[in-house]
Specification:
CATH class: Mainly Beta
CATH architecture: Sandwich
Helix content: 10-25%
Shape: elongated
Largest sheet: 6 strands, antiparallel
Oligomer: single chain
Length: 174
């Protein structure tokens, strides 16, 4: 009988850990992720004359006080004519792509506002307006080509007139 009691005791002792383990709570869950990859391009202004401040896609350049016969802003040249004068420099624009089979892009530019009367803004020899103007249709991704840009100012523009404007660039994948 002792053997039976000891045998039952051993079986009961071995069953307890199994019973405790079976009583543990368990849970599970899943996360389903969906999405579509879209091609994209980015444009940054890398350089320009004047007091250039790199800001990626929103860079600035400050010319300070300018005049036909005064100090020329850093990074600019000045040419004078009988009734006008022109400040010229270069601007570097970089376009990069991701997830696209496009091999080239079209670079466009336009002014943010109409310029003062008689003031002419150009980029890559294209006169800018508030409408979109194509600068090149064969842009190379990842390169930083430089384009000549200029501001022609008439002698008739009143003293202290602002020539402030924004050159808005856009790139369209080809």
């Amino acid at each position: 009988m002792n053997k039976v009691v000891i045998g039952c005791f051993l079986v009961a002792m071995l069953a307890v850990p199994t019973f405790v383990k079976a009583a543990s709570a368990a849970g599970s869950g899943t996360l389903t992720v969906t999405g579509n990859v879209s091609s994209s391009i980015t444009l940054t202004v890398e350089s320009a004359g004047g007091a250039f401040t790199y800001g990626g896609n929103d860079s600035t350049t400050a010319l300070g006080t300018i005049s036909k016969f005064g100090v020329v802003p850093t990074g600019f040249t000045r040419t004078t004519a009988a009734t006008t004068w022109t400040l010229a420099s270069t601007i570097g624009v970089k376009v990069e792509k991701s997830n696209s089979i496009s091999t080239a892009y079209t670079l466009n530019a336009q002014l943010g506002a109409a310029p003062a009367t008689g003031v002419i803004w150009t980029v890559n020899a294209v006169a800018l307006t508030t409408g979109i103007q194509a600068l090149t249709a064969a842009g190379v991704y990842g390169a930083t080509p430089t384009y000549t840009w200029s501001i022609q100012i008439p002698d008739s523009l009143a003293t202290a007139s602002g020539i402030d404007n924004v050159v808005q660039f856009s790139a369209v994948a080809g």
